[in-house]
Amino acid sequence: MNQQPRREFLYGLGSSLGALALTDLMAGDGFAAAAAKAGPLSPKPPMHPSKAKAVIMLFMEGGPSQTDTFDPKPELDRLHLSESTRTEGLASGKRFYVGSPFKSRKVGGAGIDMCDKFVHLADAEVADELCVYRGCQAESLNHPEALLHINTGSRLGGDPALGSWMTYGLGSENQNLPGYVVMTELALPQAGSTNWSNGFLPAYFQGTRLRTTGSPILDLKPAGHITPDHQRRALDELAKLNAAHLAAHPEHAELASRMESYELAFRMQAEVPGLVDLTTESAETLEMYGMNRPETATFGRQCLMARRMVEQGVRFVQIFSGGWDSHDYLERGHSSRIASVDQPIAALIKDLKRRGMLDETLVIWTGEFGRTPDNNYRGGVTSLGRDHNVDAMTMWLAGGGTKRGTIVGATDEIGAKAVECVHPIRDLHVTLLHLMGLDDNRLTYFHGGRYKQLSQFGGELITELIA
After folding, report:
1. Which phi and psi (to 5°) does residue 132 adopt?
2. Global pTM?
3. Which domain of life is it from (predicted)?
C-alpha cells in the first residue's frame, strides 16, 4: 500500500473539520461566497452600495509640502528666517522657519486654497471637484517605511498593497487586463516594487508595472515565428500538465496563480497594444494632457493611460511622480514638480468628468508624509527647504462619492501639526475601501494564524470626506 506523504496527510487533516467550519462561516458572507464561485479576478459585488468602481492614485513620492501647495500659512511667512525652537521629528540643532516661496490664492467657486504654481488645477471646472484633506497624520519619518505604510498599511513590508486589497475584494471588470496597474517615472520609488506587492494574498492581485519607454510590458509581442494558434496550443498542453500537478498538490496556491498568469499574459498580448496606442486619441485630447510639452509629456501620457485603463475596466491604477523631497532648493524643486503634473492632472479630471466617469472613479493625490515649517542650518547656511513631517500632511480626493469643493480638517498656524479632523493613515485606508464599497472589517485574509486586514487592526471612517 502506498504511504501518503506527510505533507499531504497534514493538509488533509486541515481540510476536514477546520475547512468545514470555515466553509460554514463563509456561507453567510456574500463576498466570500462570490469569490469561491468565480475566478480570482472575476468581478465581485461590493459589500455595500457605492459610487466608486475604480481608483486612480496620483502618488507624489518624496513628500510634497502642505504649506506650499494646498495649506498656506501667512504666519509662517511672517516668521521667515527667524529662529525655530521646534524639537519634533527630524528637528535638531539650530533651526529657522521657512516661509513659502510661493503665493497662494483661493480658486473656484468653493474657494480652495492653492499655490499659484498650479495654473490648470486652479480652473473652476477642476478645483470645484476637489476635496482637500488637511487632517491626516503619518507614522514614519523614513521614506521607505512611510511609502510602505501608506501603500500597504504596514511599515515593515510584506503586506498587500491597497490596490491588491481592492482587486481581491472586487475583482476586475476586464479579464484581458491586469486588475491593478502601476506606472512610474525613470526610477522606482523607494522600497521599490514592495509598494505594489500582493504580499500574503495570492499572486493574482499583485500590481503590474508598465514601463515608460519601449514596450510597456516585456515580451508583449511573441517571437515572429510563433503564431497565436501555436501559442494557444502550447498553453493548453502546459495547462494539462499543471492541472495534474495541482490536483496532486492542492496546497500549492502559487501554481494556480502561475497558471492564471500565463493565461492573462496571452490575453494581454491581444488587448494591451490597442490600449497603449494613443494615436486613436484626438489631437485636442493629447494637447489637453500636455503631450506636446516636454515637461508634461511623460506624466500626461500616464494620466491619459490611466483614463483609458479605467475606461476598459481596470480596477486600480497608480502613478508615481518622484522628486518631491525638497530639503533644499524648495522653490526650484516644487516649481519643477508642479509644472510636470499640473496640466495632466487637470486634464484627467476634466476628461473623466466630461465622459461621465468621475462619479465612478475615485482620484487620490497624496505623498507619504508632509513637510516641516522649518529647516536646520547646514554649515551655517540657511538652506531654504523642509524636513519630513508625520504630524501634518495634505492630500486631496475627487469623484467617487467624495465631497466636492470642500476643505476638511486643519493644521496649526504654521502648518506643523494637524489639529482638526485628525486621523491616522489606517482611517484613510478604511475610508478609501468604504468609498469603493468594501468593509475593512470584512475584507480579510487568513494568514499567519489569523485573519488580516488592510488597516492591520481596524479603524474608523473619515465621514467628513464622504458626500
Report:
1. -85, 125
2. 0.85
3. Bacteria
